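The methods section describes the discrete structure representation at length, but only in general terms. What matters is that the chain and its backbone geometry are given together, residue for residue. Nothing conveys this as quickly as seeing an actual entry. For illustration, here is how one protein appears when written out as sequence plus structure tokens:
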Amino acid sequence: MTLSFVPHEIFNDLLKKEIQPEIKSELLSYLCRINILYMINKAGSGHIGSSFSSIDLMSWFFLKYVLNNNSTRNYFFSSKGHDAPAMYSVMSSLGLIDFNLIHKLRKIDGLPGHPDVNTSNVITNTGSLGMGISKAKGIIKANRLKNTECRVFVMTGDGELQEGQFWESLMRVKQESLHELMIIIDNNKFQSDRTVEYTSDLGELKNKITSFGIQTIKINGHNVFKFSKDIKKLIDSNQPSAIIADTIKGKGVSFLEANNLKPGQFYKFHSGSTTDEIFRKSIDELSTKINQIINDNSISLDFDLENSYESKNVISNSHKKESLVKEYSISLLKQARKNKYIIALDGDLILDTGLIPFEEEFPDRFFECGIAEQDMVSQAGTLALEGFLPIVHSFASFLSSRPNEQIYNNATENSKIIYVGSLAGILPGGPGHSHQSVRDIASLSGIPNLKLIQPSCSKEVSMILNYCIDELKESSYIRLCSIPVETPFDLSKKYKIEKGKGTTIAEGKDVIIFSYGPVMINELLKTRTELMKTGIKIKIINLPWLNYVDKEWLKEQIKGFKFLFTLDDHYESGGQGEMLLSNISQQPDKSDFPKILLKIGINEIPKCGSNEEVLSYHKVDSLSIMKIIKETISKNSNYLENK
């Protein structure tokens, strides 16, 4: 596949031109759209629609204000975060970050999937929605304490306004006279997949924000010739202000634009890269528009693109990749047909959590809650008290943290609720640490009457869901891996889900290792194959239970082994390994237990990058695990012989 991008020289040439600022900004926006597409397609993932809807505004704010920090320091950041390709494209074109980083979106030591302060001139980490205004207020107060004049321009998404923190953050804006604050709402009217109005209608948004004492206007977010004047008036008013910028998701390429969809239809370009054909057609349409702007305004600019050839990864193995979310979707439908009390609740992730078939078949038992996890979980609590079985869905990083107090409150009522956290674990590595769920086991393990469990393959998905619905009396948290995964193993035909017990995936006599989930089990099987060549045979146990183990079962598994390892798709702290080692330490008779016990897991903030890069960096890939096991055996062999 040949990818095209706008080289740095063209941006440098444009910036030197003595032309009307609005024309320069418009041209910059369209040039940046090409590089947004390039970055996302080179990375293989990213958010096109939201980047295209916000780029016209971003270009103006960076050109007019961020680059002109004279007596007043001007800050700009995007609270929604997933439009990072737009921000990176503008920043790279203006020299605020190294231009060559456009070739390293979502790569290790490149540009993270969501903004991070380790990137030059990035103000704050974003990607977890709803935090932006609060962060802006902190910046303003810090500058006041330092007697420094500043302005803070913070962009939000419109769907993001469903987060409660957004409204909390407005409460004292007028009271504290935060005239330095300007809120820019990218009102493209679409969320992850469907319209904001369909998902969770914002109502009279202008009146709502105005009621907080914030001067609020509506603009066309793509008409720089008009909105440039509106923005200046707001700044000159010296009041806290908000702009509701009417934009179009995917703006700039006709067939990427979302404004032609009907209510309930899914927008196809929220996340992910495009096909070769769509990329090529998009570049052609954008190039035509760029040449039109150049010619209409008699700009002397040699517009030409550079090409980069990208080879496609060819997977040559015999193991078919499975989708655990797809299997979950099928299994949930089967259960719902038998059990009329099953209710599904969703947090604006109906596509990612596999709930489209459920909504189609059981519309009266499906509740869309929008980006409002606390509200969703509390609704589930009283649904359970009224005799229903609510099953709550969101990404694991959000479901385990944002409504943690509400989950605890539900637990104190001794009702039964099933929570399903998708996108669990350190993969995919592309979105970055805001979405890499490696602390959910720790944050939920202490909640009473809540069992955490993760399937390792499609077959185990249905087994676990059926067990949680039909047999388990307590509430449960099902941790789901969302990426397509290889599962080069078969569960024993005798295996059944039993509380606190697992199953042997591969036999061995030298080392025993416990893990869970498809990513880590797959890495362990590759490790085992390599270790077999050196004469080391490891026993792999899939233990789906993350915060509970049957002590007698555990005792029987580990007897006779000298070495015991645990492998977590999670921080070592608070993970399954810590739970297992704690249980082992409490056993009264340890005479026949392993003498060397070691946890393997994540020990720092997850890196953003390709899946292979991320596993390797954090030393949870097969080669790193093999090295750890071999070194541990080598270091301790003399010690064990003398015991």
The domain at 323-486 is CATH 3.40.50.970 (Rossmann fold). Confidence is low (pLDDT under 50) at residues 313-317.
